[in-house]
């Protein structure tokens, strides 16, 4: 996993404004992903700005989320709940609410394994009739800094072509479900969404188009990262946004879907699924890719995306988790290297005074 612990401090680099001047807002940052990987990104970017939007995958079919999805037909709430917790306020009263939302029931009864937040989101969605309204309602309770949105307003399924499950390694088998894809002992070759042409969440499209910085990854590559480029309208928004786009690679291959993958292979499969997708920077933990030929190969692969590679220390010492402060620093450097503005990219912003 590439999870990051909840940061102890949420001070941001945005300096206080001069006397008698208006406060300058931070950059608008939109982060896409799911699960622990997105939690890591959100824990980092909240240090840079309060203008954060999380766009979250909605294909989870396991655990509490899978049960609620199957029983109620709701968008799976687990990854959405984690994103809310990552952006929640840090005063004592809100912390109690966040801990409660994250609490998971034990025992062996009907509630065993469910998290409180999943149940609240499922209930709010039924009452409000809309998952986005439900998320906004719970966000107010948690004093969320920014907004959390599903990538699609309907639950999706992931289907994958997997080799290595038959005696003949050339034969692929089709498997379905996020959990099945994430834990397969075979090699995932390609993934698809079901339905194949799902709607995108309109506010999520706006968040991508209006962002100063869009961050994709880290996370489960086939089940949390690549699905974002498979939603047609979201794919178009990601291709055409004037935002600076940064891809954050995992610190290590994950058991199951990306076992044995090099950093270069992660880029290769993303390019296979979205040949016209381009990014400006690829952030890679320096310790995860040795100097020499492996870095050269990775840099060549990144160049196909039009991207520069930043080899930086972004890991929490002794773990395979991203350190929020280090990752925030790396992303801020990416912003600074391009001025952090959309004006230079045709977006019309005129200053970088938030820096």
Q: Give the ordered list of helices and strands.
A: EHEHHHHHEEEHEHEHHEHEHEH
Return the CATH topology of the largest domain.
Rossmann fold
Radius of gyration: 20 Å
Average pLDDT taken over every residue: 88
Distance between the termini: 32 Å
- Which stretches of 5+ consecutive residues score pLDDT under 50? 1-9, 11-21, 340-355
What class, by secondary structure content?
alpha/beta
Overall CATH architecture of the largest domain: 3-Layer(aba) Sandwich
Helical content (DSSP H or I, runs of 4+): 25-40%
- Spatial strand arrangement across the major sheet: 3-2-1-7-8-9-10
Beta strands, count: 10
Largest sheet: 7 strands, parallel
Q: How many domains comprise the coordinates?
A: 2
CATH top level of the largest domain is: Alpha Beta
Tell me the quaternary state. single chain
Task: Report on this structure.
- The chain is of the alpha/beta class and about 350 residues long.
- It folds into two domains: about 190 residues, Rossmann fold; about 90 residues, no CATH class.
- The chain contains 13 helices and ten strands.
- A seven-stranded parallel beta sheet has the order 3-2-1-7-8-9-10, with helices on both faces. The protein has a three-stranded antiparallel beta sheet with strand order 5-4-6.
- Strand 9, helix 12 and strand 10 form a beta-alpha-beta unit.
- It is globular and about 55 Å long.
- The N terminus and C terminus are likely disordered.
Give the secondary structure arrangement, pairings included.
Elements: E1 29-33, H1 35-45, E2 52-56, H2 63-72, H3 78-87, H4 92-102, H5 116-128, H6 131-141, E3 147-150, E4 157-163, E5 172-176, H7 178-183, E6 187-194, H8 202-209, E7 213-216, H9 221-225, H10 232-240, E8 244-248, H11 263-273, E9 281-285, H12 293-304, E10 308-312, H13 324-337
Parallel strand pairs: 1-2, 1-7, 2-3, 7-8, 8-9, 9-10
Antiparallel strand pairs: 4-5, 4-6
């Amino acid at each position: 996993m590439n999870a990051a612990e909840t940061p102890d401090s949420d001070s941001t680099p945005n300096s206080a404004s001069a006397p008698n001047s208006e406060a300058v807002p931070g950059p608008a940052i939109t982060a896409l992903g799911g699960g622990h990987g997105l939690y890591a990104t959100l824990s980092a970017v909240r240090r840079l700005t309060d203008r954060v939007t999380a766009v979250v995958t909605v294909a989870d079919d396991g655990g509490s989320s899978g049960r609620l999805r199957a029983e109620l037909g709701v968008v799976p709430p687990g990854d959405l709940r984690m994103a809310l917790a990552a952006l929640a306020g840090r005063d004592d009263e809100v912390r109690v609410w966040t801990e409660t939302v994250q609490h998971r029931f034990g025992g062996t009864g009907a509630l065993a394994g469910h998290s409180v937040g999943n149940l609240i989101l499922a209930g709010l969605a039924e009452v409000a009739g809309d998952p986005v309204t439900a998320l906004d309602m719970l966000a107010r309770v948690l004093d969320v800094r920014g907004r959390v949105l599903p990538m699609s307003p309907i639950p999706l399924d992931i289907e994958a072509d997997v080799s290595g499950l038959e005696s003949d390694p050339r034969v692929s088998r089709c498997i379905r479900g996020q959990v099945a894809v994430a834990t397969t002992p075979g090699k995932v070759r390609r993934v698809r969404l079901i339905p194949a042409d799902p709607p995108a969440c309109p506010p999520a499209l706006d968040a991508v188009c209006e962002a100063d910085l869009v961050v994709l990854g880290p996370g489960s590559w086939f089940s949390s990262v690549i699905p974002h480029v498979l939603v047609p309208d979201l794919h178009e928004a990601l291709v055409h946004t004037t935002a600076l786009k940064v891809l954050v690679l995992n610190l290590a291959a994950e058991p199951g879907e990306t076992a044995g993958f090099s950093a270069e292979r992660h880029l290769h499969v993303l390019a296979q699924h979205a040949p016209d997708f381009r990014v400006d920077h690829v952030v890679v933990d320096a310790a995860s890719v040795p100097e020499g030929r492996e870095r050269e190969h990775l840099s060549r692969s990144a160049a196909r995306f039009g991207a520069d590679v930043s080899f930086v220390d972004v890991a929490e010492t002794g773990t395979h988790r991203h350190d929020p402060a280090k990752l925030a620093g790396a992303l801020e450097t990416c912003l600074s290297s391009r001025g952090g503005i959309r004006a230079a990219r045709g977006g019309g912003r005129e200053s970088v005074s938030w820096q």
